[in-house]
Amino acid sequence: MYLGRNLSWPRHALGDRLFQLDQAAQAGEAPWAPRVDIKEDDKRFVILADIPGIDPAGIEVSMDKGVLTIKGERKQENLEEGHRFTRVERAHGAFLRRFALPDSADAEGITAHGRNGVLEVSIPKRAESAPRRIEITH
Fold first, then answer.
1. Quick check: 82 pLDDT over 90?
2. Angle, vertex CA 6, rays to CA 56 and CA 1, nearest 5
3. What residues form the membrane-spanning segments (predicted)?
């Protein structure tokens, strides 16, 4: 079974808003964007972003009004005098990714760490609230 690059997220599990905001690179705000995978289990969402050659300390992960932003920059390699590139395929420059988080995400518990060229952003889920009856007073 081939799923392709654009997996459909089950709306009942993730909500209509999950990760729909990520259009920064397409809108010209950044010349490139790292590839990401997004996975989910019962307790959290995890964003895995490929960032080879970028020091994780130079990446900014922020949260504002339900939107998670990952931004940073891959510097272009400086060449010694007399050297030149014969091919350039690796993207460089600033990057920006934005993700609208679902209501079930716990923004206060978000953590991030980088290792082996991959940034992992862990977004815990809030406990589901139980329905309650509201009494009507006379």
1. no
2. 115
3. none
